[in-house]
TrEMBL record:
Pfam families: GerE
Taxon lineage: Bacteria, Bacillati, Actinomycetota, Actinomycetes, Pseudonocardiales
Gene3D superfamilies documented for this protein: Winged helix-like DNA-binding domain superfamily/Winged helix DNA-binding domain
Domain HTH luxR-type span(s) in chain numbering: 1-61
Name recorded for this polypeptide: Helix-turn-helix transcriptional regulator
UniProt keyword annotations, A-Z: DNA-binding, Transcription, Transcription regulation
Keyword DNA-binding: yes
Protein's UniProt keywords contain Transcription: yes
Annotated InterPro entries: Sig_transdc_resp-reg_C-effctor, Tscrpt_reg_LuxR_C, WH-like_DNA-bd_sf
Organism in which the protein naturally occurs: Lentzea sokolovensis
PANTHER family: DNA-BINDING TRANSCRIPTIONAL ACTIVATOR DEVR_DOSR (PTHR44688:SF16)
SMART domains documented for this protein: HTH_LUXR
Coiled-coil intervals: none
Length: 63
């Protein structure tokens, strides 16, 4: 399983407790784009929410 650099970046902000809006601001992208990166990461990780996405990404050494 492979996540793009942006998907990993947005997950690292989520892991730090940031919202999609706050993550987007830090990344210099729109909140909708940050949310889309997060949704793509969910799909690739086979999860449906932020907490399990972070746990799965950490478990696989992706973040």
């Amino acid at each position: 399983m492979t996540l793009t650099p942006r998907e990993r970046e947005v997950l690292s902000y989520v892991m730090a407790g940031r919202t999609a809006r706050s993550s987007a601001r830090a990344m210099g992208i729109s909140p909708r784009t940050a949310t889309k990166h997060l949704e793509n990461a969910y799909r690739k990780l086979g999860v449906s929410n932020r907490v399990t996405a972070v746990l799965a990404a950490r478990e696989h050494g992706l973040i």
